[in-house]
Amino acid sequence: MSHTTTPARTHGRALRVAVVGAGPAGIYAADILSKTDLDVSIDLFERLPAPFGLVRYGVAPDHPRIKQIIVALHKVLERGDIRLLANVDYGTDLKLDDLRQFYDAVIFSTGSIRDAALPIPGIDLDGSYGAADFVSWYDGHPDVPRTWPLQARHVAVLGAGNVALDVARILAKHADDLLPTEVPANVYDLLKASPVTDVHVFARRGPAQVKFSPLELRELGHVPDVDVIVYPEDFEFDEGSMAAIHSSNQTKQVVKTLTDWTLKEPEELTASRRIHLHFLHKPVEVLSEDGKVVGLRTERTALNGDGNVTGTGQTHDWAVQAVYRAVGYFGSPLVDIPFDEVAGVIPNREGRVVDVDGEHIPGVYATGWIKRGPVGLIGHTKSDASETIARLLEDAPGLEQAASPEPEAVTEWLVERGVEHVEWSGWLLLDAYERALGAPQGRERVKVVPRDELLAAARGAAPRRGADAR
Ligand SMILES: Cc1cc2nc3c(=O)[nH]c(=O)nc-3n(C[C@H](O)[C@H](O)[C@H](O)COP(=O)(O)OP(=O)(O)OC[C@H]3O[C@@H](n4cnc5c(N)ncnc54)[C@H](O)[C@@H]3O)c2cc1C
Q: Which UniProt keywords apply (predicted)?
């Protein structure tokens, strides 16, 4: 795909496309579409006042290198040919019929922000939390409560992926080690007061089956005053494990890091906090007293040769006062759009959204996590977006024409309805405001959390905070 001097026109004017969700998937889709030979005019809707999706509200604050992806996404939107309309929620502020009035095609890239379910007794107890909620809290998502109960000394984290590692690391890390990051002030204060000493991560399967990435795992070993402890009795490698180690460099590196940790001498473990990594332990029940979490029961599992495990019936109770399940994310249904309740995605064929009969709903597309489920890294959403845009381009000549395609029609409509949308200029003001909050402490930014303060900053009308604002 390349730029031509005269872009192709299918509708006697620029094709009007709405992208709903300004995470990486939506921004990549808009970028790829804008670079095709087709004359297009793209609006990018976002429910939050700030763009960038889980890069801003999922990637951990102590991962500044990954957060830098925002710089690349920022550059795409800064060009000015893709219009940002943030603080507009699909489903409440507008619905599909409204979008059809203004656009010839709509791409949904609304991602996933909820926790997948883990159906074990006690999982809904006070003191048992979803990782997605905790992540939203520590990353300063404006729509979640400002406080988080951090009274537990011993905590269990259920899961064997990078989100489990993020949660364990943020829980165990000394808050002062987060201070150089963009961590919001309320989050720092509560983490600083946390009495936690031990975080136990439980994986159902063996060391060769975990989904940790090597870098994230190795990072655990460098957290100041936090020891990583593994247990030799959890190290079982069957034929399936050996095949996995030999066929995947990633698995090989993960297993090496874990195995190196088994060699640590007890006298090397001097930190005041610990992260314990347990394998072949399947959580079977969250234990309670008076409605509060007091423990976790796990069942020892055994590898059965094909990468899976079976329970041995042998259980162990761990005294923990809080449980975090990091067993995956799950998409949320969107008004007037089909939803696959089992997979948690919008049903689609290569990005073309389909109805219950498998028929493509004309002009409606999906991309990113809401298209293929909540797996994969930010980079994967790019190839995903390419596929969706390729299908849209094939369909473009036959797309029904919107009645009011003028770019100002939709913004006037939003204003009439009292929806305070935030355009790119508003994001720049908000961005500058967060940077100004960080500058006195030499930090790149301090994230603002309350929605009204975010909106005030985007209007250039935020109250000045004192220099002590963390
Ligand atoms: C805790 C966590 C840590 C991660 N860490 C890394 C990492 O270190 N490296 C890495 O490569 N990947 C990481 N990922 C994966 C990465 O975040 C995803 O691959 C990527 O964000 C998916 O992109 P997306 O655009 O599909 O979804 P999202 O990033 O979720 O973006 C969706 C956007 O749509 C908006 N939206 C939702 N509903 C509506 C609506 N109704 N109306 C308007 N807008 C709406 C949302 O507000 C959001 O901005 C992490 C994921 C999680 C959960």
A: FAD, Flavoprotein, NADP, Oxidoreductase
